[in-house]
Design brief:
Number of strands: 0
Radius of gyration: 20 Å
Distance between the termini: 59 Å
Structural class: mainly alpha
Oligomer: single chain
Mean pLDDT: 88
Strand content: under 5%
Order of helices and strands: HHHHHHHHHHHHHH
Low-confidence stretches: 9-15
Shape: globular
Largest sheet: none
Helix content: 55-70%
Amino acid sequence: IVTVYYCKKFHLLYNYLMDQITLAAKQVQQLLNDPTDGHGFDHVERVRKIALQIAEQEGGDRQIIELAVLLHDVDDYKIFGQASADNLTNAKRILSQAKITTSIRHSVLDIISHMGYSKYLKGIRPQTLEGQIVSDADMCDAIGTQGILRTHAFTLSQGHAFFNPAIAPRRHDLSPEQYQVGAEHAVQHFFDKLLLIPNLMLTPTGQQIAQKRQQIMIDFLTNLFEETDSEIWQKHLREFIKSKSL
């Protein structure tokens, strides 16, 4: 009887937690309803899949991981503005409406506030295992085949060129302010951020995934520069790989 009682309690708790996540997911889907800019709900679903894949090997609290994944882009400065990003306006509202407990809410908000490449440039990184898993999963979706497609989609949505071989590569490391301004064309963004991502992984499993995806991008750029007869960029890629030990 005692065993049956605790089994029922466990299932009730599990269903309650799943209902909270489902409610949060529906609200996120309404906010991130544009799949053409690379930051739609399809991105969130891929990050969730990668995060759970990493968590299988590394551990971590699944509810915190899933909620942080769901909410990690709902206040993205590129979509919702800097004020929303600074205050985590949408994330706080969704967590409150989903009736997430105070302790979990704090854990999720802490993860979101420590994620992102612009935060990394400021020396801010997730400290908890759950935060490291979500950060790694998000960065992994920015690279590889899917990352190339996302970069292309976002670039076109902003009305910018994907590649302009007439513009010489820039060679300096970026400040957080320079990174937020963005590159003149998307291929420069590969060198500013995307190719560097495997070196930023915080979990062993995340690093394995990222290294495989990094090679996909190197192969893509190699062929792109050959097909467009871009000798300057070919040389830049070779020097970049050597200098960064990719």
